[in-house]
Design goal:
By secondary structure, the chain is an alpha/beta fold. The protein is built from ten helices and 16 strands. This is tRNA (Guanine37-N1)-methyltransferase.
Length: 335
């Protein structure tokens, strides 16, 4: 099937989730079009059915995977040229790390999570299982934990030892960002290295991006430069509650991606909101009532000042047993 380069990653993931992405043939890029091989036309998600076409694609040369070398399928995550493990057994972690290096996966560093996310800056400890020096890999970055992650045509320089970033949220970010309009006033309350702010600015929005982590803001400014949107982003280091007075009533769209504690910042979000404002509120709740507590908190913060209308209730992913990471897309309309 043929799609634009901008759609390529989203469609690839959708085809993979539907089980119809053909791994035996290569994906081909021809100018602004990406051709994705499929195994079954009938299994293509309905929203992409019109993109199915006919074209010969070269066969994919088989690659050695870590599973081929280990005899079992290990769990790992890729972020740029870093591979991330989450193994309690250090011997097993080292075994997987060695298999990753010996496989055909392009890798510079292999890390194992050594702590949970902690503190206001949402960082964690890492154990470096394989460094660039260990395998003689070129290291153009300042540390083994720094890399460039590419997502939907954008690139983000970041250091996982200094900032929070989750590649698992790529599809969710794309879902909300594709509706951003040129000229919109967008406020990202917990911006990180810019995975919401930079695509929003690229779509023509005027963006204010705030984060408590000074290093994240440093990376955000660099990433804005890399992606050619520096002129449309105001990056602010600080607590958004202390910044909000300067932007009161300004925002037409607000991102609140701090799911464990976004509720503590709802009064600030309401202060930032203009006459009409779309709020993307991320939350983690029990599967029995994943949206109710968040909606109640938003209504309480809005008080008599705004009408509150839910536009979308969206499950982002399973977070833990019986807990869901969800997003409420809520429109605030001044009364």
């Amino acid at each position: 099937m043929a799609v634009s380069r901008e759609q390529g990653e989203a469609v690839r993931q959708a085809l993979a989730e539907a089980g119809v992405l053909d791994g035996s043939h290569r994906i081909v890029v021809d100018e602004d079009t990406i051709y994705l091989p499929i195994t079954d036309k009938a299994g293509v998600p309905e929203e992409y059915a019109d993109s199915v076409t006919t074209r010969e694609l070269p066969e994919q040369e088989p690659q050695r995977t870590p599973a081929d070398l280990l005899g079992y399928d290990p769990t790992y995550e890729r972020l740029g040229d870093i591979v991330i493990l989450d193994e309690d057994d250090l011997d097993r972690a080292r075994e997987i790390a060695n298999a990753v290096v010996d496989s055909d996966i392009p890798v510079r560093t292999v890390l194992n999570r050594a702590s949970k996310i902690r503190g206001e800056l949402r960082v964690r400890d890492w154990e470096v299982l394989v460094s660039p020096d260990d395998i003689g890999a070129p290291n153009p970055y300042s540390s083994p934990t720094e890399t460039v992650h590419r997502e939907y045509g954008y690139e983000f320089l970041l250091d996982v030892d200094e900032v929070y970033f989750s590649p698992r949220l790529a599809t969710e970010r794309h879902r909300v960002l594709e509706n951003v309009d040129s000229g919109e006033h967008v406020f990202d309350m917990f911006a990180g290295v810019g995975p919401y702010a930079i695509p929003a600015a690229d779509r023509g929005a005027v963006v204010v991006a705030c984060d408590l982590n000074e290093r994240a803001i440093d990376y955000l400014r660099e990433n804005a430069r890399r992606n050619g949107v520096s002129d449309r982003i105001t990056a602010i280091h600080g607590d958004v509650r202390e910044v909000a007075d300067d932007w009161e009533g300004w925002a037409e769209r607000i991102f609140m991606n701090l799911p464990h504690s976004a509720g503590e910042f709802l009064e600030t979000a309401v202060a930032l909101a203009g006459e009409e404002c779309l709020l993307h509120y991320y939350d983690i709740q029990h599967e029995d009532d994943p949206f109710g507590p968040g909606l109640q908190a938003i209504r309480e913060a809005a008080g008599e000042e705004y009408d509150v209308r839910v536009e979308t209730e969206h499950v982002v992913r399973s977070y833990a047993p019986h807990e869901l990471n969800v997003c409420l897309d809520v429109r605030l309309s001044e009364r």
